[in-house]
Amino acid sequence: MSKLTIVANIVAKGDQIEMVKAELIKLIEKTRQEDGCINYDLHQDNDNPAHFVFHENWASEAALEAHLATEHIANYVAAVDGAIESFTIDRLTHIA
Predict the structure, then answer these.
(1) Taking phi first (over 0 means left), then psi (-120 to 50 degrees means alpha), and beta for anything else, what does residue 36 get?
(2) 36: domain CATH number?
């Protein structure tokens, strides 16, 4: 199986942008050290600062599932409870 590409869209509530951004940044170092993490890159929309995008590549679905079960993800979810307007994850297969 080809690597798994993830595009995660996180939209913070207007008054929570900086807090959500800070919590997202906390995820980067620990996640990049995880087995199976190829890249884990955070972006912020130039026109809508409440919109954050993680572009991620994982060696496998199992590596992603292990990531989603980590303590740092659980801590993030607890920290941003009530501060997120919307959240979507797209799972993509690399073709070329």
Answers:
(1) left
(2) 3.30.70.100
Strands 84-93 and 37-44: unpaired
Cα 36 to Cα 30, 46, 47, 67: the distances in Å are 13, 30, 32, 9
Number of domains in the chain: 1
Whether the CB-CB separation of 80 and 18 falls below 8 Å is answered with no
Q: Residue 25 corresponds to which amino acid?
A: I
Residue pLDDT, tens place only, 4-60: 999 999 999 999 999 999 999 999 999 999 999 999 999 999 999 999 999 999 999
Answering whether pTM is above 0.90, one says yes
DSSP state of 42: E
Strands in 1-96 per DSSP E? 4-12, 37-44, 51-58, 84-93
- Residue 36 falls within a domain, yes or no? yes
